[in-house]
Amino acid sequence: MTGDKEVIRALNRVLGQSLIAINQYFLHARIARHWGLEALNDSLYKQSIAEMKWSDDLIARILLLGGLPNLQELGKVLVGEDVPEIIECNLRLERQKFDIITDAVTLCETKSDYVSRQLLVTLKDGNEEYEDWLETQQDLIESIGVERYIQSQMNDDDA
């Protein structure tokens, strides 16, 4: 099957963002674990794995369309140096991904590639869910204070 070259490029842009997210969220998970924040580690690690699965789906779709998945052009991983910064970095990446995914969905609609569009909508839904979770964490930090938030993340029973 030969797909539209613009759609393949758009899917590769989304793939690039997902690959950044895998690395960023995995690193942040391990930083949280190093600090003893098991619940935060678990949440960030699960998101890294979700990104890996979405990347796998994107790679499969790009190959099916006759394209070559681009695993080489990775952007910058944003590394947080404390808990609020980790959450802010991940939120920034999610917002960036949202724009790229939304543009790709629009392109797929224009090109009548509804299978790729559905894949991207699934990714967009996961993106929005994680963005909401990150915003909730920011709200918690603001309302209870960073010290109490960090204390709440030391136990993994809540994850």
List the keywords.
159 residues, single chain, mainly alpha, 0% strand
Describe the structure.
The protein is mainly alpha-helical. The protein contains five helices and no strands. The chain is elongated and about 55 Å long. It starts with a helix and ends in a 7-residue tail after the last helix.
Number of strands: 0
Which class best fits the helix and strand makeup?
mainly alpha
Q: What kind of sheet is the major sheet?
A: none
Mean pLDDT: 94
Broad shape = elongated
Count of alpha/pi helices: 5
Topology order in helix (H) and strand (E) letters: HHHHH
- Beta-strand share of residues: under 5%
Enzyme class: oxidoreductase
EC number: 1.16.3.1
Domain Ferritin-like diiron: 1-145
Keywords: Heme, Iron, Iron storage, Metal-binding, Oxidoreductase
Task: Summarize the structure in short.
Its EC number is 1.16.3.1. It contains 5 helices and no strands.
Which secondary structure elements does this structure contain, and how are they paired or packed?
Elements: H1 5-34, H2 38-64, H3 83-110, H4 114-144, H5 146-152
